[in-house]
Backbone:
C-alpha cells in the first residue's frame, strides 16, 4: 500500500490519531507535517528530499498530547525511535513507524522488535562526504585538527539549532540554559563555543543515532555532527554497542564492565 | 623565558585513595614539586569532564586525575564509570585538537605515597617540557572571561 492510502486507512480506522510526515514546502523543499484527518492525507510526500529526522518531534508535549502517532521513518528515524524507547522517553504502543521501501510501498512497523529487524536488513554507513572528512581529520596532526575546529567554530553564533534539531536532546533543563552554576559561558566567543560543542558531544556519546540533523540544521555550515559521530564511533569501538540498535540498550556511560580496556591510565 | 616557566598543574583526586596517598607522601617526607594543586572530590566518578575544561580555562597547563584502583572504589563502581567516561572524553578531546598529553590519568591507592610523588614528578617534568598551554590561553583571552 502506498503512503497516502495507508495514512488515510490508519486515520479512518482510528489506529492512530495523527500521522507525522512531510509535505511540500516552499521552493520545492519538504517540511514536517502532522496530519490528523484522513481527507488531509493527500498532501503527504516521502522522497529523498525529506531529510529531517522526525523523531525529534515525538518527545514534544504538544505532539504527545495528540495520541498514538504514525511516523514516516527512514533508518535513522527508526534508530532514534528505538533509542528514545531505550531511554524511556517513548512507549512502544504510542508509535507506529511507517518505513517506505524502494518501490514506494509502506511497511508498517508496529513493535520495537519489528523496527530492530527492519534496521538489521540494511547495513549502516555514514554518508560518503562525512566519512571522508572524518578520515581526513583523523589523519591530521593534533595541531591541524585544533586549527580546523577553531576556524569552524569561530563561525558559531550559539543559536543552539544543533541542539534543538536533535531527537536525543529532549532534556527540559539543558546544561546550556543552566546558570547556577553557569557551566558554559553564554557569549559565542572562542571558549564558549568550544565548551558548548564539547558538552554537546559528550552528552550525546553513546546516544547519538548518527542522523546528522545537527549538521544540517547549522545555519553557518559547521560540521558539528562529526563531533557526535566521533563520540559514537568511540563508544562503538570500545564498548561494542551502537545507539538505536535496540529498545533495550543500556546507556554506555552509566554501565561498565570490570574488564573495560584502556591504554592510558597509569 | 622558558627557564622561568613554572607549570600550573591541577590534580583532581578522590577522597578515599589518592588524597590519602598524597597525605602518605607528605607524612613519609617524600618531596614532590609544588606545581600541583590538589583538589579533593568524593570519587573519580564525581569528576565531570567540564571540570577539566574549566581547569584549562582558568590557566592550568596540565591536569592529573587520580583515584582508587579498579575494584577498590569506596562506592564500589565510581572508578569504573569514570574510566568509561575518560575513554570517550579522551578520544573526543583528541578529535577536537585538545592536547591529551596534558592530561594524565592514574590510579594511586592510599598506600602508594611513593607512586604519587613519582607521578607528580613525571607530570611536572612533562608539562615543563611542553611549555605553557598557549593555544588554550589564547582562546580564553579572545573571550570575555
Residues:
Amino acid at each position: 500500500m502506498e503512503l497516502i492510502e495507508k495514512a488515510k486507512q490508519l486515520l479512518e480506522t482510528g489506529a492512530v490519531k495523527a500521522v507525522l510526515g512531510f509535505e511540500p514546502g516552499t521552493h520545492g523543499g519538504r517540511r514536517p507535517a502532522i496530519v490528523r484527518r484522513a481527507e488531509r492525507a493527500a498532501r503527504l510526500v516521502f522522497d529523498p528530499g525529506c531529510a529531517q529526522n522526525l523523531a525529534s518531534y515525538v518527545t514534544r508535549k504538544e505532539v504527545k498530547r495528540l495520541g498514538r502517532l504514525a511516523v514516516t521513518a527512514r533508518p535513522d528515524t527508526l534508530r532514534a525511535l528505538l533509542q528514545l524507547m531505550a531511554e524511556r522517553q517513548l512507549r512502544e504502543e504510542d508509535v507506529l513507524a511507517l518505513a517506505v521501501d524502494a518501490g514506494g510501498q509502506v511497511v508498517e512497523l508496529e513493535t520495537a522488535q519489528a523496527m530492530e529487524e527492519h534496521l538489521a536488513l540494511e547495513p549502516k554507513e555514514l554518508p560518503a562526504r562525512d566519512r571522508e572528512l572524518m578520515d581526513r581529520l583523523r589523519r591530521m596532526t593534533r595541531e591541524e585538527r585544533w586549527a580546523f575546529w577553531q576556524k569552524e567554530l569561530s563561525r558559531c553564533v550559539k543559536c543552539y539549532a544543533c541542539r534543538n534539531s536533535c531527537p536525543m536532546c529532549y532534556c527540559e533543563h539543558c546544561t546550556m540554559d543552566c546558570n547556577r552554576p553557569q557551566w558554559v559561558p553564554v557569549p559565542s566567543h572562542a571558549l564558549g563555543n568550544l565548551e558548548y560543542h564539547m558538552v554537546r558531544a559528550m552528552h550525546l556519546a553513546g546516544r547519538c543515532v548518527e542522523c546528522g540533523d545537527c549538521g544540517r540544521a547549522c545555519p553557518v555550515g559547521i560540521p558539528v555532527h562529526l563531533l557526535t559521530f566521533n563520540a559514537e564511533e568511540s563508544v562503538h569501538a570500545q564498548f561494542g554497542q551502537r545507539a538505536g540498535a535496540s529498545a533495550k540498550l543500556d546507556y554506555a556511560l552509566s554501565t561498565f564492565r570490570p574488564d573495560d580496556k584502556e591504554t592510558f591510565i597509569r | 623565558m622558558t627557564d622561568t616557566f613554572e607549570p600550573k598543574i591541577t590534580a583532581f583526586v578522590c577522597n578515599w585513595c589518592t588524597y590519602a596517598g598524597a597525605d602518605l607522601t607528605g607524612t613519609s617526607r617524600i618531596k614532590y614539586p609544588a606545581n600541583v594543586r590538589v583538589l579533593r572530590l568524593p570519587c573519580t566518578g564525581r569528576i565531570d569532564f567540564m571540570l577539566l575544561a574549566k581547569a584549562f580555562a582558568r590557566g592550568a597547563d596540565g591536569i592529573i586525575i587520580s583515584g582508587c584502583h579498579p575494584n577498590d572504589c569506596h562506592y564500589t563502581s565510581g572508578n569504573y564509570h569514570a574510566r568509561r567516561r575518560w575513554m570517550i572524553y579522551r578520544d573526543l578531546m583528541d578529535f577536537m585538537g585538545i592536547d591529551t598529553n596534558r592530561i594524565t590519568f592514574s590510579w594511586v591507592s592510599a598506600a602508594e605515597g611513593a607512586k604519587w610523588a613519582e607521578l607528580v614528578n613525571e607530570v611536572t617534568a612533562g608539562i615543563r617540557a611542553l611549555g605553557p598551554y598557549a593555544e588554550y590561553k589564547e582562546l580564553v583571552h579572545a573571550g570575555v572571561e
